[in-house]
Amino acid sequence: MSNNYDSSTLSLFNTEFNEQTAILLEIFTKGIIDSEEEYQQVLSSLRSLVTISQITELSFFIDLFEAIESIILNYKLESLQKENKVLIELNIFILQISDFPINSPEKFENWFSEKKIFNDKIQTILQESIRNTEAQIKVTETNTNADYVDYSMLDLFLNEISTNIMVFNEFLLKIEDSPANIEFIEPLMRAAHSLKGAARIMQMDVIVDLTHSMEDLFVKAQNKEIVLTETDIDISLKAVDVFSQMLEIQSSEISNWLISQNENIYRINNEIKNRKLSHKPKEIVAQKKENFPSDSLPIVCEQSPSEIKISIKKLGKILGLSSQVMIENKWLDSFTESLLKIKRNSFSMLKDFDEVTNNIPVENKKLFSKFLTKVSKELSQNITDITNNINYLGQYSRKMSNITEKLYGNVVSLRMRPFSDLTSQYQRRVRDLAKNLGKRVKIQINGKNTDVDRDILAKLEAPLNHLLRNSIDHGIESPEIRIMNGKSETGLITISAFHKNGMLNIDINDDGNGISIDKIKQKIVDKKLSTKEIIENLNKEEILNFLFLPGFSTRDFVTEFSGRGVGLDVVQSMIQAVNGSIFIESETGIGTTFHLTLPLTLSIVRTLLVTISDEYYAFPLTKIEKVLQINQKEIQTAEGRKYFTFNNEKIGLISAAEVLELKTRPITSGKIPIILLKKNQFIYGLIIEKFIGERELVVRPLNKLLGKIADINSTAILDNGSPVLIIDVEDMYLSIDKKLNAGLLKDINLNYKNNSSEKKRILIVDDSITVRELEKKILEKSGYYAETAIDGIDGLNSLKAGNFDLLISDIDMPRMNGFELVQEVRKNKNYSKIPIIIVSYKDRESDKLKGLEAGADYYLTKSSFQDRRFLIAVEDLIGKANN
Amino acid sequence: MSQFTTFFVGESFFGLNILQVKEINNNMKFTYVPDSPNYIKGLLNLRGQVITIFDLAKRIGREPIVIGTLTRNLILKTDNETLLLREKGLINKEVGNDGIGFIVDRIGDVIEIDDNRISSTPANLTTIAKEFISGVVEMDNNLLILLNITELVNFNTK
């Protein structure tokens, strides 16, 4: 037997060997271990030595250091803290191996046979240590019934198990695919080894034995003494199942569970051991070991954790606070605004002052000149200061809003987990399932690092599992058929997760036989869900949608895994429950893809903000089919109900205010804003008051004390700081349906006609709220309908939208004054004939003339409110309210 | 000895253990909640938290409060916030963990009351449902009604 050792690994071994043995010698010489840290130090040094020996393939050292490690673990800290002769013995051992001729590999064999006796000796010590441990355990067992398992350690242990299960699953399956690839064995070995160590600390002997056998198996495979077969992998996976089961057991039950499983585990253990034996050690071919890049060195020490746990409640609070910071920050804008006002005022003060200065008679000027210059200078200085401060504030405000938005975004992202959290088990699951069904299936997962909200991740588990099962059972063909169809024997399922258009997309694709459209059509007819004539006119997508109906299954027989007819409908409703959607794409002979579209997070929802009866409401965008504005002319009546036609479809109109039981208002504008809601057979045009715009809102639950509020899902805080309610669209379908059946929804358009035909409509344009409201009151008291606008531009817009009989306007207004407004109105042929009254404080004759010239019919001063002149003018122009 | 926040609804004089109260403010910008009980005033933003506010007058069966300059919100501490206080036995009322509060006509003084001055509700003394009252205290020229806040926020009862 000859061995070619790689010089770079040997030099690595050399460094590690010298370093670690020095540490051990230092401690062992004392014949006592002082502290927990020292104990851990010894174990970690030994572990490093075992690993480096494994890498260098020096089986002598592997066995030796493993044995020493076991001895130390068996004795445990308590008995080593007293002077213990075993440490001295070990010390001698290590001294005696320090003459290992590391630089002359040709001498290795000689050295090993020379020191062979060591291994026997060490085994004796090991046996002794085991007896020692057994005695100790017996003492513990007889003395107390208490569990010997330390719970906090147990948590760590279970944590370690769950990490290693993933490693096992991943690499066992990789090995299955390419048994010759030694690289995949290394992590398995490491996992078994670290579990062994951990189990030993927990004193779970059965697990120690089990992992030990596993490790042995892997080590042999790595040394190329054996090649792992499918059976080896099956058995190893059985062992992994034992670990998985442990995770399911309550901590307090673990020791009992282990006792109950003792036999089972023992059996698996034996199987693994037997596998080891049944492999004839192959002739070991002298082979140059691949170079290990230094960074692939197994990490023996615990890595410092890169993630911590945080309670959802605390996270929610931080989220609330950071959104509040963002909202509070908006105050800076209004503050800047007020500073600008001060600046403007100071300017006009300066101007006034200059005028005063100029008008002082020359003879007095001398007297004041010093004082005047001083004040003027101070005023200019103030203006400069304010200007500077406004600039600083502006900069600060921009910076702040930038930072707060980032902060907010980051806090929100705290809720995100990588998609791989969900899929780590899939390799294994797919393999088991496929095996059971006699198929060969591989799974490929793309976008493992895609961020997914933890809530959504949790809700995705069941639907994804179902779709996976579906693909394996219905999608992928049996190997024989695949070969017949010229495909590779092994089917491929690809799961891809990615972000697109602010949504999370998950595609589950199989390269199977696709869904037979004809079969579905036949089934639809058989199940009397529709007639032949109708389905012939449906497109593929629509046919595939039948699969989502409850009780619809194309599979002729039921398997253990799928085809029971419950399924796709449940998948769909689960996905809809998180505001997502699903659709199927299938190509005969090529495969099937399920496309899932989900919101990125449940805590933030993208909404359309609208007003209904002057209150804000938010509709989740994912629930809205379309938003549109229709003309009143487009509205038609059928069977006493109003509808309009859109894409050849008749859509019934519903007033959102009525559904929510808010005060309904007459529809006044010519264009009616509508939200189109569509779900299965339901399609409604929901009339709202006004579209405000798109908003991303942080969802908060409603107070539980309120119980379920009809049509409302949750609440959120708007950027103006006021809470807004988020509509529960699903619930709204139900209440619309209920209210329609109960005849509770009035005919909307009738409302409008009544209002408009009964009352004459007057638009009041004035920048003073007092005047506006006063005029409105006077007019409404007399039976007119009045609407208000706050300046010329606003007035012009209202005029375009509504059907007004009279316009009343002020003169001095921002943006567009009364004269300009009147001119604009007269220019537009749509309403150039509308009578106009100007009401102003300006009572100079020139102003009056200017107004009338522009096109007003009346020019009144505001004192006219006191007498009846105002109303007389209105009546003169459009007549009394009621005729 | 316990300290009580006092407040008025009309001429009725009410008290609530001060340890139960998170803050008092005059933010009257409520968001209306359709389909909610008629005594629910609406939702309020308190530093990023959404607080549900009810009208105390309407809740105890009177005419709703007309919002004026003295109208105030009394915001209650959530159960999480009173956890320690309740463990220590300083208070014993729970209101759930979602922010809640109510409006009153005006706020009175904070007064200190000896526990043995608190007596159980006398019959026929008040029109308010008995379960809303945890005790009364005879004052010089007034009767202080101590509210049972747990029952008041139990919106399942009428």
| Low-pLDDT stretches of chain A | 137-149, 280-303, 556-566, 749-757
CATH architecture of the largest domain in chain A, by name, is 2-Layer Sandwich
Distance from first to last alpha carbon of chain B: 33 Å
| Number of helical regions of chain A | 30
pLDDT < 50 runs, ≥5 residues of chain B:
none
Number of strands of chain B: 10
CATH architecture of chain B: Beta Barrel
Q: Report mean pLDDT of chain A, rounded to a whole number.
A: 79
General shape of chain A: elongated
Strand order of the largest sheet of chain B: 8-1-2-10-9
Query: How large is the share of residues in beta strands of chain A?
Result: 15-25%
Characterization of the model:
The complex is a heterodimer of chains A (883) and B (158). With 883 residues, chain A is an alpha/beta fold. Chain A has 6 domains: 1-143, Four Helix Bundle (Hemerythrin (Met), subunit A) (Up-down Bundle); 147-288, Four Helix Bundle (Hemerythrin (Met), subunit A) (Up-down Bundle), CATH 1.20.120; 312-414; 418-599, Heat Shock Protein 90; 604-752, Beta Barrel (OB fold (Dihydrolipoamide Acetyltransferase, E2P)), CATH 2.40.50; 759-878, Rossmann fold, CATH 3.40.50.2300. Helix content of chain A is 54%, strand content 16%. Chain A contains 30 helices and 23 strands. Chain A is elongated and about 125 Å long. Residues 137-149, 280-303, 556-566 and 749-757 of chain A have low confidence and may be disordered. Chain B has 158 residues and is mostly beta strands. Chain B has one domain (2-152): OB fold (Dihydrolipoamide Acetyltransferase, E2P) (Beta Barrel), CATH 2.40.50.180. Chain B is 8% helix and 39% strand. Chain B is built from 3 helices and 10 strands. Chain B has helices spanning 56-59, 83-87, 149-152; strands spanning 2-9, 12-17, 21-25, 40-46, 49-55, 72-76, 100-104, 106-113, 133-138, 143-147. Chain B has a 5-stranded mixed sheet with strand order 8-1-2-10-9, with no helix packed on it. In chain B, strands 3-6-7-5-4 form a 5-stranded mixed sheet. In chain B, β4 and β5 (49-55) form a beta hairpin. Chain B is globular. The model of chain B has no long low-confidence stretch (mean pLDDT 89). Classes of the chains: A alpha/beta (883), B mainly beta (158). Chain A binds chain B through residues 313, 320-321, 323-324, 327, 615-616, 660-662, 700-707, 709-712, 715, 717, 721-725, and chain B through 29, 31-37, 40, 42-45, 47-50, 52, 80, 95-100, 153-156.
